[in-house]
């Protein structure tokens, strides 16, 4: 499938001239015009640029748009990185880096530049210029109660590309709208830009504003915050500092790329040594307030919708292992996400395949959908 602009001139692109930066910005703008639902842009040597629309990658077709060369993608990467020395050093040392890039009045991006087969490739995620509201995301009303939490840890979990960053931004914005507080974020890179409303929001970007996440969290504890936002919990050091912050009277919000609440807990625990597992599980049982699990599901009309499950971890839940979490869907209390997938599939809002792909227990859901499809016999 190909993406072409509607009512726009063919995309022209050349980096041979001195105005390479302007040519790259023109290309980005033209790719965004190809479809109003573009979420990602991909630049790879040997291919024409591609965009992702509703989870499907499509090629930009234009008679004047050539296949990109390794030199083209190197110039695109250099333009996006600019004078960010820390990002350039990371690219050289680790083979990848993340940067934010803005085209004022048009769009903002989170860009990942990486080395493959000795050349640069670039993937750019389009960041909405407006922070989504909880209503626009279809989030449950319960999430508005986040303003009542005074301490503890709140995790937003889901697979990559499930909208966790949007939900996190919406929660921050809701607090910003309703609560006089001080919010400090640690992000890599900064995606949504928050202005001061009822709250004061300070956003710190890794490498640009702080050398490490650990340094930023440690410093935040001396900056009188009510709320600390950590883009993602990835390792033991970050997890430990987040827990310490929660234990000292701060509300900590973060994300994890995990499919279920139990898997999130196990990943946190397993970041510690085996001798610390019992004590870490006990700490999480005291400090983990909510786990917000979400999926982004394609509808039959081509749009995507978010599904949410909010879990309040109990002492018994903290003992649950990821594999045993699946067993609950064989009983009456099936996962709310699976129950909603069943309802949407029966109503024809999503396909059966989409429902099974995103289900916590696809076997049980398949059986229920098959039963629902059978004609009722008298």
Structure commentary:
- The protein is an alpha/beta fold.
- It has two domains: about 1-125, 2-Layer Sandwich (Beta-Lactamase), CATH 3.30.450.90; about 135-320, Rossmann fold.
- The chain is built from 14 helices and 14 strands.
- It has helices at about 20-35, 70-80, 85-95, 135, 165-180, 215-220, 235-245, 260-270, 275-285, 315-320, 320-325, 335-345, 350-360, 360-375, and strands at about 1-5, 40-45, 50-55, 55-60, 95-105, 105-115, 120-125, 150-155, 180-185, 200-205, 225-230, 250-255, 290-300, 305-310.
- The longest helix has 15 residues, at about 165-180.
- The radius of gyration is 22 Å and the shape is globular.
- Residues about 5-10 and about 325-330 have low confidence and may be disordered.
Low-pLDDT stretches: 4-8, 326-332
**Count of helical segments?**
14
CATH architect. name of the largest domain: 3-Layer(aba) Sandwich
Beta-strand percent range = 15-25%
Q: How is the biggest beta sheet arranged?
A: 7 strands, mixed
Distance between the termini: 47 Å
Question: What is the string of SSEs from the N terminus onward?
Answer: EHEEEHHEEEHEHEEHEHEHHEEHHHHH
Tell me, rounded to a whole number, the average pLDDT. Answer: 87
If strands are numbered along the chain, what order do they take across the biggest sheet?
1-4-3-2-7-6-5
Radius of gyration: 22 Å
What fraction, in percent, of the residue positions are helical? 25-40%
| CATH topology assignment of the largest domain | Rossmann fold
CATH superfamily of the largest domain: P-loop containing nucleotide triphosphate hydrolases
Structural class: alpha/beta
Give the total of beta strands.
14
């Amino acid at each position: 499938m190909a993406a072409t602009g509607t009512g726009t001139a063919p995309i022209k692109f050349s980096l041979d001239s001195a105005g390479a930066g302007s040519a790259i910005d023109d290309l980005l703008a033209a790719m965004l015009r190809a479809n109003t639902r573009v979420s990602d842009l991909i630049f790879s040597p040997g291919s024409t640029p591609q965009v992702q629309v509703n989870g499907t990658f499509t090629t930009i077709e234009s008679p004047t748009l050539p296949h990109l060369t390794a030199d083209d993608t190197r110039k695109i990467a250099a333009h996006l990185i600019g004078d960010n020395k820390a990002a350039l050093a990371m690219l050289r040392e680790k083979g990848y880096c993340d940067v934010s890039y803005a085209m004022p009045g048009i769009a903002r991006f989170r860009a990942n530049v990486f080395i493959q087969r000795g050349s640069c490739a670039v993937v750019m995620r389009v960041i909405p210029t407006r922070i989504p509201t909880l209503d626009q995301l279809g989030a449950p009303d319960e999430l508005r109660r986040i303003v009542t939490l005074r301490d503890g840890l709140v995790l937003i979990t889901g697979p990559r590309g499930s909208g966790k960053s949007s939900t996190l931004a919406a929660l921050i914005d809701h607090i910003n709208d309703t609560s006089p507080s001080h919010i400090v974020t640690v992000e890599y890179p900064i995606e949504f830009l928050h202005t001061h409303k009822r709250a004061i929001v300070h956003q710190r970007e890794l490498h640009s504003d702080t050398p490490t996440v650990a340094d930023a969290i440690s410093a935040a504890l001396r900056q009188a915050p009510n709320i600390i936002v950590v883009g993602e919990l990835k390792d033991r050091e970050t997890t430990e500092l987040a827990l310490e912050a929660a234990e000292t009277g701060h509300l900590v919000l973060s994300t994890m790329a995990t499919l279920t609440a139990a898997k999130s807990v196990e990943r946190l625990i397993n970041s510690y040594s085996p001798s610390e597992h019992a004590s870490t599980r006990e700490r999480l049982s005291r400090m983990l307030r909510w786990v917000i699990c979400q999926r982004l599901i394609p509808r039959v009309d081509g749009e995507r919708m978010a599904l949410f499950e909010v879990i309040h971890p109990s002492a018994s839940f903290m003992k649950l292992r990821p594999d045993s979490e699946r067993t609950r869907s064989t009983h009456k209390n099936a996962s709310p996400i699976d129950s909603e997938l069943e309802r949407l599939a029966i109503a024809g809002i999503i396909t059966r395949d989409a429902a099974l792909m995103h289900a916590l227990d696809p076997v049980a859901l398949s059986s229920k959908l098959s039963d629902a499809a059978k004609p009722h016999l008298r």
